[in-house]
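User: Can you write out an input/output pair for a complex, sequences first and structure second?

Assistant: Here is one pair. Inputs:
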Amino acid sequence: MTSLITSRARHVAVIGLGAAGLVAVRELRREGHTVTGFEREKHVGGLWVYTDLVEPHSLSVDPDRTIVHSSIYQSLRTNLPRECMGYSDFPFVTRSGKGDPRRYPDHREVLMYLQDFAKEFKIEEMIRFDTEVLCVEPTPENKHKWRVQFKSSSGVSGEEIFDAVVICNGHFTEPRLAHIPGIESWPGKQIHSHNYRTPDLFKDQVVIVIGSQASGNDISKDIATIAKEVHISSKAVASDSYGCYDNLRIHPTIYRAREDGSVVFRNGKVVFADAIVHCTGYKYHFPFLKTNGYVTVEDNRVGPLYKHVFPPALAPGISFIGLPFMGLQFFMFEIQSKWVASVLSGRVKLPTEDKMMEEAIAFYTKLEDLGIPKRYTHFLTDPLGNPMLGTFKPKDAVVISQSDYFNWIAKQCGCTSIERWRERLYNVAIKKIFFGGDSYRDQWDDDQLIEEVYGEFAKLKSNQDCSS
Ligand code: FAD
C-alpha cells in the first residue's frame, strides 16, 4: 500500500478503534498523516467484541461506574446483509471454510471482518491498546494544538500533543431511559439493553420490553423463547391498540408503574410484571472532551457541528466520525474519514467558521420547523423516511437523507460516493426490516442483485490484484 505524502502531514490522534476508528486510521495514514490510535480495550472491534460481562448496576446510571463497552447480546445477527455493510474496498464476504457464511451473519463474523481489515492495512501497529483517553483539551500556548491525556489499565499515565484529534468513541454505551411515572417505587427487576446478554434471567417470567427498534425487536423475541409472556411497549403503535401473538403482546407506551408491581399501558391494560427491559437507546457521551463549551450535548444533539463532523470553532482540529446513526454505518465512517483526512492535509478546504456556523444553525432551524426533536439531529433518513421521525420523508428534510449526505461529502473530497448497487441493496434490506416479518434475515428474493454485487466485488479484486 502506498501512502500519499502531502505538504501538510499532521500528527493526529484517533480515539477508539471500533469500525469507525479503524477506517479513520487507515484514511489518515493514506493521506500521509502520522497517526496514533488510542483504544481502552485490548482489541480492535469496539462494540463487536462480545463479552458475557455486564455492568454491576443493570441500568448503568452511575457516571463513575466501570464501563463495559459492548452492548451486543449473544444471539445478535446483523440487521443488514453483509454485502452492503462492509467498507468500499474491503468487501464483507464469506471467508472460505471459516466463520458464519450467512448473509446476515452473527456478531463474531463482524468482529472477524474488522480484525481482518486491521491486519490487511497494518493498523494495529499504530494503536496503543489498553489505553483510555481521559482528557482532550487545547494547549494553553496554542489553541490549534491538542493535549491528549491518557492512562493504561495498569495505571501508567501520560500525555502527548497532537495537531488534531478524531473522535471515534462510539455511542452505544451510555444508556438512555424512558421516563415512566411511578417507576421509582416499582418493585420489579429493571435492566437496560446495554446489559442484556441472554434470556436466561427471564425464564417463566412476565417481562415488559420497552422499545421496538432493532434491539427491542430482537430482544423481545429472544426473551419470548423462555419467558411466560413478553409485553412490548412501543411508541410506534396507537394509544388504544393491543396486539397478541404466541406469548408476545404489543402495547402502546406505559402510562405508569405502581408499587404493587403492576404496570398500566396507555391502552388501559394492566400487567403484573417481573421485569422491565429498557431498549430505549443511548446517549452521546464524551467525558474526556474539554472544549470550553464550544461542543455540547443537548437532548442527544452534539453541536454545533458542520455536517455532523466538524465543530466550526474548533475545526479541523477536532472532528467526530460516526455520529449519524442508522443506515450504512461502515460506509459512512469511511467517507467521513476521507473528508477529515483531506481537510487536515489541506487538500480540501472547509468554509470559514462563520459560514459553517450559519449552515449548522440553518440545519437546526429546519429540523425545528419540521417539528423534529433535537434528539433526532443525527438521524439520517432512508428511502422510506424514518419511522422514528413519523411521516417525514427525505423530500421534507433533504439535509438528512443518507445518500445526499454521502454524495455531498464525496463531492467535497473528490472521492467515489455510494455505489448504486449498495444503495439498491440497502433499500431492499430496509424494507425487509420493516415489512419482512420475523424471518427477514433468512428469506430474500434479490438473487439477481446479489449476482451483480458479487460481479462488482470480482472487478474490485481484479483491479486490486493489478495495482499491487
Ligand atoms: P464502537 O464500536 O462502539 O467503538 C468505539 C471504541 O472506542 C471502542 O473500542 C471503545 O473501547 C473505544 N473508546 C471509547 N472511549 C474511549 C476512550 N476514552 N479512550 C480510548 N478508547 C475509547 N451496524 C451495522 O452496520 N449493522 C448491524 O447489524 C448493526 N447492529 C448493531 C446492533 C447493536 C446492538 C448496536 C448497539 C449497534 C449496531 N450497529 C450495526 C451500529 C454500530 O454502532 C456500528 O456498526 C459500529 O460498529 C459502531 O462503531 P464505532 O467505531 O462508532 O463505535
